[in-house]
Amino acid sequence: MAQVEFPVSNVDATQGCGTTEKNKPLLICKGFAYTIDKTTNDKTYWKCEHVRKFKRKGRIHINCTHTTLLHENDNHNHPGNPVSTEIRIFEEKIRHQALNSNEATQNVIDYCLTNLSDHAVARLPDFKHVNEIFKITDLFLQFDSGPDNDRIIIFASVEQLQFLESGEQLLVDGTFKVTPSIFYQLYAMHVVYGNVVLPVVFALLPNKTQQTYRRLIDKLSKICPLWSPKFIMMDFDLASINAFGDKFVTTTNRSIISVCFFHLQNSIQRKLQVSN
């Protein structure tokens, strides 16, 4: 069965769309709710969501672009409930805005209350409960250079970027085992905050060249203009050492770069094994 999408943000308070408890498409019209019965090349057939319970054939047909009502059979064996369907549309609009907007939660609720009837408003749940259900998450994808061989993707929340910008001690390292196949490594940045170490940036990188590290650093510097760590700890990757050194160890900025003792031990052990 084809998945159907609707412009939820454009519907009014009495007709629109949503999803069922099983996340299937739901169409709301004139106080009744419908689920998909079948689809063809030119139309979608919808049946009353209570068709099994009431054994009646309330149905409507919508064109293939889901913009025009082609046929309506209002042979329902139960009364419609305009207030309940209004609330369902209200909840769906909030979900849509929460997923597609960086607006504050209260602003989203105020926007979705537009044109809602007094009867529906009276039956809404407590707004503290609404805030918990539809809490808007921070933007996590900060940058995507695009689908090519040198693609870089940077993930971080707004709060994590604030810690990155204010942190004096930066720890960086790459890992390879959990990296998607189209990337070479997952590069992580942590900062020391009080007595804890906090992850602040996760970047998917196509390789481990100095140029790639510099692209990552330059992009983060644009996102966080005040980013200037005093201490940077990393492994013995010369490319990353040079990239961070070029950016932060200058005549105007004297960051101290140090290498991890754990990686130093591993490096010495590998050398000893090679030289017997």
From TrEMBL:
<dbReference type="Pfam" id="PF04500">
    <property type="entry name" value="FLYWCH"/>
</dbReference>
<keyword id="KW-0863">Zinc-finger</keyword>
<keyword id="KW-0812">Transmembrane</keyword>
<keyword id="KW-0862">Zinc</keyword>
<dbReference type="InterPro" id="IPR007588">
    <property type="entry name" value="Znf_FLYWCH"/>
</dbReference>
<feature type="transmembrane region" description="Helical">
    <location>
        <begin position="182"/>
        <end position="205"/>
    </location>
</feature>
<keyword id="KW-0472">Membrane</keyword>
<feature type="domain" description="MULE transposase">
    <location>
        <begin position="170"/>
        <end position="265"/>
    </location>
</feature>
<keyword id="KW-1133">Transmembrane helix</keyword>
<keyword id="KW-0479">Metal-binding</keyword>
<dbReference type="GO" id="GO:0008270">
    <property type="term" value="F:zinc ion binding"/>
</dbReference>
<feature type="domain" description="FLYWCH-type">
    <location>
        <begin position="19"/>
        <end position="78"/>
    </location>
</feature>
<dbReference type="Pfam" id="PF10551">
    <property type="entry name" value="MULE"/>
</dbReference>
<protein>
    <recommendedName>
        <fullName>MULE transposase domain-containing protein</fullName>
    </recommendedName>
</protein>
<dbReference type="InterPro" id="IPR018289">
    <property type="entry name" value="MULE_transposase_dom"/>
</dbReference>
